[in-house]
Structure of GTP cyclohydrolase 1 type 2 homolog:
Amino acid sequence: MTVKDITHILEEFAPLTYAEDFDNVGLLVGNASNEVTGVLVTLDTLENVVDEAIAKKCNLIVSFHPIIFGGLKKITGKNYVERVVIKAIKNDIAIYSNHTALDNARHGVNTKICEVLGLSNTQILIPQKNTIKKLTTYIPNNNLEEVKNALFKAGAGDIGNYSDCSFTVEGNGTYKANSDANPVKGSIGTTHTENETMLTCVFGKNEESTIIKALLSSHPYEEVAYDVQTIENTNQNIGMGMVGELDKEVSEIEFLDHLKHKMNAKLVRHSNFLNKPVKKVAVLGGSGSFAIGSAKAAGADVFVTADLKYHQFYEAENQIVLADIGHFETEQFTKNLLVDYLTKKIPNFAIHLSESITNPINYF
């Protein structure tokens, strides 16, 4: 398998189109056409991780966090980022990152946190906007089923737990072919009227090129009339954070003990206790201060995240308990998630879980 083959599999799980605009995701180092000898999955790509990849004969590192985040104007080895890039290139090792694409994926980072904490009835905390598109096209009645089925096969019409969703309206389409045209129906220079059906269906923005390719290859016309619009409907399967429920109510202290144990946290920084039971829990791996308001609006009793600043704890406002367990701690199981996924997809391939310690924070 090539690097491109494996990254394609990863992007079926976490499409890069769902990454945040500020992020730097995808293949960061290496040649996409190189054959892969083994894959090392890590949270961060540091020099010791590249050394581990070399020792395990892995020439593709799948790293949750991107080693290259801002632009590199020089690569001289003066800092850890440049040294990692130099070592990877010297040893012909590719580096791929999916970061916020995996954060936003329905079964990504935050689903894993919910799984570890034993939360059920989970939902996306902040659905991502502008992720749903709508296709409208016009098809001769005799060709409707063929084109519609091709679109459904490509992924159009999938809404939540439903597939093959569409809406149709019959009408009359007209066109006049010029001398350079090769009309399937009608004659050059004559206005032709055809009984057509207007078909509309929705799809995820990551599927647009596939959907349009399916439309053009299955439609009988030389020139296919269609338009694609981004719609305002929120996508309940894509977005940041999740909210779910414990099997039973527990006290705030009991929940923090549970949280600390399950997430292997050295400590929990938290806002004031409210002296009420905990049932509904919101989670967001990594830096999640921007979601405090959303966690409160969702009615969560506790919001588990990381990197909260002093004044942000005030934002609890006696409505919720904010629990900061650390950036690494919230995302540590992400590499297990990716290893499990890749192992299921390519079971006879060498997929390794990195043993390197990459948490930069120590506790005394």
Q: What stands out?
A: The domain at 3-101+333-353 is CATH 3.40.1390.30 (Udp-n-acetylmuramoylalanyl-d-glutamate--2,6- Diaminopimelate Ligase; Chain: A, domain 1). The longest helix spans residues 334-345. The longest strand covers residues 191-204.
